[in-house]
Design a protein that fits this description.
Blueprint lengths: L4 H4 L4 E3 L17 E8 L7 E9 L6 E4 L2 E3 L1 E10 L2 E11 L12 E9 L3 E11 L8 E10 L7 E2 L3 E8 L7 E2 L2 E5 L4 E2 L5 E9 L1 H5 L4 E10 L5 E12 L3 E9 L6 E10 L5 E11 L26 H10 L6 H10 L5 H15 L4 H19 L10 H9 L4 E5 L14 E8 L5 E8 L10 E4 L10 H4 L16 H8 L3
Parallel strand pairs: 15-21
Antiparallel strand pairs: 1-2, 2-3, 3-8, 4-5, 6-7, 6-9, 9-10, 11-16, 12-14, 12-16, 13-14, 16-19, 17-18, 17-20, 20-21, 22-23, 23-24, 24-25
Helix pairs in contact: 3-5, 5-6, 6-7
């Protein structure tokens, strides 16, 4: 039995806003910040949410308080709404460290806090204000949905927290949990110099539902996001006893993990090997120096393969067609190794690619995909780019056709509406086995190429720009902090696609 995955997801988004103001330090054009949250419960059934805010100092205003002492101050407000009722809120000033000159403004500074919120579904409104700017345009608001759900009749997981650094607790402080002092990792992208994936979560209700001191197994593993294939070297098990609250801290070494999109998956199982609850979190890894090991493909049989007889140049073109649905390391082969690979290696790569996706009928999987590529080339190609290489073509090939397309042509302006460039909103009722009710916004800013690049999506691993609706406006000067009613038609299209 699984708790809602929305509890486990780490939400990452960027605040972008236009700021105006005058001071001795050159003004900035937008606040850039990362916001994450994790939901936990207590043995007393008092749920709480931890918020993590990381602010890019190079995007905010520093003010000189004393000679050669500069600092920035951001006012952060968190308000939880149930419909239109405020359930709880928090407002505090986040002050940067003191720096000596403008060369040190590119620091990041952080805020972490804990808010107790009853179980339920809420709209969390986050507002950031640069206190060193007097202009009314120094403020931005963004909203996300937060689901806090710990049913008594199920074994449940807390949210999953990525951890930057940790040590054993000697004296409990605000970041103490489960015997550790845990300092959060802001975001879900792990660059090539960040190879330790540390994470923490809690399991609830196991004693109540399984009995006291019953043997359980916690399983953590990493899956390739595109194929749901388990990364064999990244699987850990831990034996635990049932309790009302089970803290769990895990570590994975990502140094040998190829670049790509992944899921960290966690499960708790009973002695019958039944999964009692599960949890997962999306992350991205960059390891640009890792490539496909050609020796792993050496044993693939070419004589009886379904691609026997395909000419070398045609096969090379077919492999390029795979790019929109390839994993990170497969993309490295297509982009960096394809040109220098010999014909047998290209054959083995192609066979292995489709066998990974359909072991029983790789030929059928390829034929089905190839038909989709031909369709994408017809529907989304431009005079300058093949359809499968466009953003619309890639999304079509990766996720299939959307359930609805809201196609907006050139919109004229009105009294309270600025008009828009052409755009499309693709709506998927079910994107894949893990995501539902997802949208993609494509737009045509230059009005000529008809390529429609991807502007914004609420799907995992996709371009996400909270200020996307401002990019569609035909207003000559875009003010990202303008009241949202200026964009009411655009936002209505996104929230209620037709």
């Amino acid at each position: 039995m699984k708790t809602k995955i929305t509890i486990a997801a780490i939400i990452l988004f960027n605040f972008c806003m236009t700021i105006a103001g005058v001071s001795a330090v050159p003004k900035k054009s937008a606040i850039r910040a990362h916001f994450n949250y994790t939901v936990f419960n207590t043995v007393e059934d008092k749920p709480y949410i931890e918020t993590y805010l990381s602010i890019d100092g190079s995007s905010v205003q520093f003010k000189e308080k004393l000679p050669h002492q500069y600092s920035a101050i951001i006012e952060a407000t968190f308000v939880f709404y149930k419909d239109t009722t405020i359930i709880t809120y928090s407002k505090n000033n986040i002050e940067s460290p003191i720096v000596g000159d403008s060369s040190q403004f590119n620091i990041f500074f952080f805020n972490q806090q804990r808010l107790y919120v009853p179980q339920g579904t809420y709209r969390l409104e986050v507002t950031l204000v640069d206190k060193n700017l007097a202009s009314p345009s120094n403020k931005t608001k963004e909203s996300i949905d937060v689901d806090i759900n710990f049913p008594d009749e199920k074994v449940c997981f807390s949210g999953l927290e990525f951890v930057d650094r940790y040590h054993k607790t000697e004296k409990p402080i605000d970041v103490s949990r489960g015997g550790y002092d845990l300092y959060p990792y802001f975001g879900n992208f792990f660059p090539d110099n960040k190879n330790d994936l540390n994470f923490y979560y809690e399991i609830y209700n196991a004693e109540k539902l399984e009995g006291k001191d019953k043997s359980l197994i916690i399983k953590d593993y990493v899956q390739v996001f595109e194929t749901a294939k388990t990364v064999e070297q990244l699987v850990n098990y831990r034996k635990v006893k049932s309790a009302s609250l089970i803290p769990h801290f895990g570590i994975f070494d990502l140094s040998k993990l190829p670049s790509g999109n992944y899921l960290l998956v966690s499960e708790v199982l009973n002695k019958e090997n039944k999964v009692l609850a599960g949890n997962q979190a999306f992350f991205q890894k960059s390891n640009p120096n890792l490539t496909i090991d050609e020796h792993l493909l050496a044993n693939i049989d070419l004589e009886s393969s379904f691609i026997k007889g395909i000419p070398n140049d045609t096969l090379k073109k077919f492999i390029r067609y795979l790019y929109p649905i390839a994993t990170g390391i497969e993309k490295i082969f297509i982009y960096d190794q394809l040109e220098t690979a010999d014909y047998p290696l290209r054959q083995r790569f192609f066979i292995n690619f489709w066998s990974d996706r359909n072991a029983m009928r790789p030929d059928l999987a390829w034929q089905t995909y190839y038909a989709s590529v031909q369709m994408a080339n017809r529907e989304f190609g431009t005079p300058f780019k093949a359809g499968y290489l466009t953003d619309r073509g890639r999304v079509y090939l990766q996720y299939g056709p959307p359930n609805t397309i809201d196609d907006r042509k050139f919109d004229t302006a009105g009294d309270d509406y600025w008009g828009t460039v052409p755009y499309q909103i693709w709506h998927y009722y079910k994107l894949d086995s893990r995501q539902a009710n997802k949208r993609f916004v494509f737009y045509n800013p230059d009005l000529s190429t008809q390529e429609y690049p991807l502007l914004h999506s609420d799907a995992l691993g996709e371009v996400n720009d909270p200020s996307w609706y401002t990019r569609l406006s035909r207003q000559p000067t875009i003010n990202e902090s303008a009241p949202q009613q200026q964009y009411y038609r655009i936002l209505e299209d996104f929230r209620n696609p037709r």
